[in-house]
Amino acid sequence: xxxxxxxxxxxxxxxxxxxxxxxxxxxxxxxxxxxxxxxxxxxxxxxxxxxxxxxxxxxxxxxxxxxxxxxxxxxxxx
Length: 78
What we know:
The protein is of the alpha+beta class. The chain has helices at about 15-25, 50-60; strands at about 1-10, 30-35, 40-45, 65-75.
């Protein structure tokens, strides 16, 4: 499993609805509200045999209220 962080910018007034929809998918291990350019940050683990882009598109990026995302891939834990 590969850990990946995804930040979400939500439409105004939609952050709680987006957060609920993300949790309903049951694929994130952690979900936080954040300050700055993005409203939410999720940590999830993607199976090694899955393409990261396709996996995220199929499981998260179709949620209504998401305006923009930023995906950060990880490579090595220290």
